[in-house]
Design goal:
This protein is α+β, with helices and mostly antiparallel strands. The protein has eight helices and 30 strands. The longest helix has 27 residues, at 36-62.
């Protein structure tokens, strides 16, 4: 009997195997398999075998999360791991609203109703934002002032579904896959004639769920829509035939509405048109979780076992619940100097902007971390600190062995440096090593003979205008004495206004790299000293800068930039300082620091504010 070959999957090979098998049989030894009739039959057999092989291959692929292609397959596997894909998230903004009522309005208080609409435009497209809660203000000086109102992009949706004997435990399909699950509310009405309603809460666990618990679960179905699952009177309360499920939510357009800055209230209040003032532009909108993201997050989420104990648990829970995070750093208070026991510190580098909003921090603490962490553990967010690195790079290259010009060599090196920062830095908990960058520059082109980097460090401070404040910040690495200088800003001393800058002057002669210096406020116009003792600087260790009475009336651009040169032994940036948090009164010093983001200085030369280009590469021809 001929050997049965079953490893081939190609149609032609399958057909050839069938022919060889038949030729090995005495009954078909002298048949002409190229004949039209028998050839057609063999084609049918080969096609059927090939069809079944492809089907089995595809089915097998869809059984594993690593190889599945269809979203429904990936979601189904993720469901067995206890993971629910993230929904669309509506962009949020904060505004203040002023209303000067008409003379006909005599009330002493005014309420902005729930779901009041605000209109805006982003990239010439119209979007509607709304309030999720009502807001009330009292009249002050014949005006109503509503401060810090949060509005969310999207459309308010009410869906009602009647319960029959076949779906008392669900599933109830939510008929819009643009739902923002964070806005989902569910109430159960007793019947058409009995309007009494009971609120049900969303849960993600069965722990402490009793037969009478008014809860529901959310999962994504094979049809791509979210479904509500209710209890069975063993785990959670079962619904009753005749009940009406009232589902309300916001259907959002996700990331499209990020960046809106001008809002107009769409309704009149107290007989007048409200005046809306922006507090923070819309941000945080995100699209539905992609299959690749589900594939990445679901196994890691399952590994947490729905608890927050290890560092990886915290990171996975945040990434799976918070689409706005680019990178996350987590450390325990025992790693601080001095230790702060009983606390877990979290720092998040957002995809958009520089800081995570307070509302997002509250959401993560109250809804994601606290329910899953160990009792008595407190959670505290530490905002990331950005350390910008500027460079003047000199390259010596051999023009005899390359057709490239000096300008082309400069472009290659600049791109190498930019890619190094983008790929290996610019996120939380990363370290900069001077020698590693030198090696990348040396190997970026065969004609490069040598390189020299003059580094400078930059901290960017956003001042609170017209406010006296004590300012303290670190460079996180030792800096050279007599190298600290700020960009220009406007300040007032007494009744006089100055364009000024800050510069350090060492206290020792000769200057000590482990010593201190005095900060002076200097007039930009004639370089005369306005305030001789404006603060202090400590050059060693992490280079602490302390300004005792920082007062700024205006600034060109968004910030004031403090530049300094690192000491020779401080060119490897391994930060060891984290600033004081909003909650902890003592400085937080984890080692190594995990909330420092080292990024390339993107400044451009501007003599008007005192900035120089962040990255400059100069290629000089040289022969061996």
């Amino acid at each position: 009997m001929a050997d049965l070959r079953v490893t081939e999957l190609d149609f032609a090979q399958i057909k050839e195997n069938l022919i060889n098998y038949l030729k090995s049989q005495t009954e078909f030894s002298d048949y002409n398999f190229a004949g039209s009739g028998l050839n057609t039959l063999i084609d049918i057999l080969a096609y059927n075998t090939h069809y079944n092989a492809v089907l089995a291959h595809l089915q097998t692929n869809e059984m594993f999360i690593d190889t599945a292609i269809k979203r429904s397959s990936i979601v189904s596997i993720a469901k067995t791991l206890g993971y629910t894909p993230r929904s669309v998230a509506g962009a949020k903004a904060k505004v203040s609203v002023n209303v000067e009522p008409s003379v006909s309005y005599t009330g002493t208080s005014l309420t902005i109703p729930q779901y009041t609409k605000f209109s805006t435009k982003v990239n010439d497209r119209n979007y509607t934002f709304m309030t999720l809660d009502s807001h009330t203000a009292s009249k002050i000086s014949n005006e109503f002032y509503f401060n810090n109102i949060e509005i969310i992009e999207g459309a308010y949706i009410l869906q009602q579904t009647s319960i029959n004997v076949d779906n008392v435990s669900g599933p109830i399909k939510i008929k819009n896959n643009n739902i923002d699950l964070a806005t989902l509310n569910v109430t159960i009405q007793n019947s058409i004639s009995d309007l009494t309603t009971t609120a049900f809460d969303r849960t993600t666990t069965i722990i402490d769920i009793k037969p009478t618990s008014n809860v529901y679960w959310v999962e994504e179905g094979a049809d791509g829509y979210y479904h509500l699952i209710f209890g069975d009177d063993i785990i959670g309360k079962k619904l009753t035939a005749g009940n009406i499920v009232n589902i309300t939510y916001v259907a959002s357009k996700g990331a499209e509405a990020n960046g809106a800055q001008t809002f107009t209230c769409s309704v009149n209040l107290a007989g007048a048109s409200p005046v809306t003032t922006l507090i923070s532009a819309s941000s945080g909108g995100s699209n539905r979780e992609t299959p690749d993201s589900i594939r990445f997050n679901a196994p890691k989420f399952n590994a947490t076992r729905n608890r927050a104990v290890t560092v990886e648990d915290y990171k996975t829970l945040i990434f799976s619940s918070f689409d706005k995070a680019k990178s996350v750093a987590v450390w325990g208070g025992e790693d601080n100097i001095p230790p702060i026991y009983g606390k877990v510190f979290v720092s998040i580098d957002p995809k958009d902007g520089y800081l995570v909003t307070q509302s997002d921090k509250d959401f993560l603490i109250n809804n994601v971390l606290k329910p899953r962490s160990v009792l008595s553990i407190l959670h505290e967010f530490v905002d990331p600190v950005y350390l910008h690195v500027g460079m003047n790079v000199k390259i010596n290259y051999n023009p005899r062995i390359t057709p490239f010009t000096g300008a082309q060599i400069e472009d290659i090196v600049a791109q190498t440096i930019q890619e190094y920062f983008e790929n290996e830095l610019s996120t939380l908990d990363k370290r900069f090593y001077y020698s590693r960058l030198i090696n990348k520059i040396q190997t970026s082109h065969s004609a490069i003979l040598g390189s020299l980097i003059d580094m400078r460090l930059q901290r960017r401070i956003v001042p609170i205008l017209n406010t006296h404040e004590n300012l303290k910040f670190y460079f996180t690495t030792p800096i050279e004495p007599n190298s600290l200088k700020s960009t220009y800003f406007t300040t007032s001393i007494g009744n006089k206004t100055f364009q000024a800058y800050i510069q350090d002057f060492p206290n020792e002669t000769p200057p000590s790299r482990a010593g201190t210096g005095t900060l002076k406020l200097i007039n930009r116009d004639d370089n005369s000293v306005i305030v001789p003792n404006y603060g202090t600087v400590y050059y060693g260790s992490s280079a602490l800068v302390n300004i005792t009475d920082f007062y700024v009336t205006s600034v060109s651009g968004a910030d004031i930039r403090f530049n300094a040169l690192p000491q020779e032994l401080g060119k490897d940036l391994n930060p060891t300082i984290v600033r004081t948090t909003a909650i902890s009164t003592e400085a937080v010093y984890p080692f190594p620091a995990q909330n420092i983001i080292i990024t390339l200085d993107n400044s451009e030369t501007n003599a008007g504010i005192g900035t120089t280009v962040g990255l400059k590469v100069t290629a000089v021809p040289s022969e061996i």
